[in-house]
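Appendix B, Record 12. Input sequence as logged:
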Amino acid sequence: MKAEFDLMISFRTPDGFKQCGQYFLGHDREFADSVFKRLAGDEDIMDSAVLHIDLVETSGSLPANIVTIGCKLSELSANCELVTRELFRKHAIREDET
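Logged structural output:
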């Protein structure tokens, strides 16, 4: 079974983090890594950040966090735009049309 890669978006609550969004990136580790590396945010501010984005690999039924960044709301907005654009490019645009 191929591994699946997702971006999980969560926000801090008094009871811990609550997931509020998810992007399915597919089965291509290279694509998932390349998208994640371009996201705005910082690994160093995770303790104080209100918003987190996790790159998660699921193999079989076991999810595992690969890396997490903390970000501000403005960065999350830019990140959602970037991820949506990259997924659109990957799935909706044929190479012979570019």
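The mean pLDDT is 93.
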